[in-house]
Amino acid sequence: MHVFVTGASGWIGSAVIPELLDAGHRVTGLARSQASADALTAAGVTPLAGSLDDLDSLRAGAAASDGVIHLGFKHDFSDMAGAGRTERAAVAALGDTLAGSDRPLLFAAGVAGLTPGRAVTENDASPAVGPDAPRGGGENFAFEYASRGVRPVALRFAPTVHGEGDHGFISTIAGVARDRGVSGYVGDGANRWAAVNRADAARLVRLALEQAEAGAIVHAVGEEGISTREIAAAIGDALSVPTESVAPDAAADHFGWIGMFFGFDMSASSALTQERYGWTPTHPGLREDLAAGYYTRGA
């Protein structure tokens, strides 16, 4: 297949690219800068200049492809509503272009807030509906294209897609611990975070492209849930700083923007995904990556 990928030079996308190429697929990647274009070219990808705000570039990439993997997202936590509007517009541009072709449209989603108090499964529908919902209600909106001759597939990633070089949530939390001199968790720290190794997630994306049916929900989850207290303790041990509880009403002051997420329970199962696609996570888990010092080395 000739696959158009947004977010191709990002943390997850740059791992998905070799999976696709090794499987014999050709890839065009959206590049919003010359540095991104150069990185994609070096990886064997054809760059397409554009951005998530440049809907014409999204339409052009989708029109020339046999399918789309939409991994790009504006991670602007100061304007989540704006990020949601951008996401919804991007999905519309891609979906409208693919309409009537039965081509796949895989898109990144998450597990946060779907089923408070228990692990999310692939049978749980997202409650986010409408343009003002988180991520612009993009999951349910994308699924509407199944009736228009598109094969939409939700890629629900664990809140931490970890590995050496990760600069996401866990890296941010470790940075707060370094700066504060204490590794904190919110409340009793019993809330759990699902996790997946970046390499395992990349392989699953490729399998979903090749196998998933229209309307499928795929869970890129290697570990169902690790308590945030255990995560904080591992970071504290690595940094040789104490581990302490932070009151929920002080989380924003202590952690900054990440505080609103670190207190959430974001556990999820991937049992159905593993059964349906023959996917078994084989790479190190989050505990192993924390112990390896990927998030605290040089601090």
From TrEMBL:
It comes from the Bacteria. One of its GO terms (cellular component) is cytoplasm. Residues 3-73 form the NAD-dependent epimerase/dehydratase domain. Pfam families: Epimerase. GO terms for molecular function: aldehyde dehydrogenase (NAD+) activity. PANTHER family: NAD(P)-BINDING DOMAIN-CONTAINING PROTEIN-RELATED, PROTEIN YEEZ. This is 3-beta hydroxysteroid dehydrogenase. The lineage of its organism: Bacteria, Bacillati, Actinomycetota, Actinomycetes, Micrococcales.
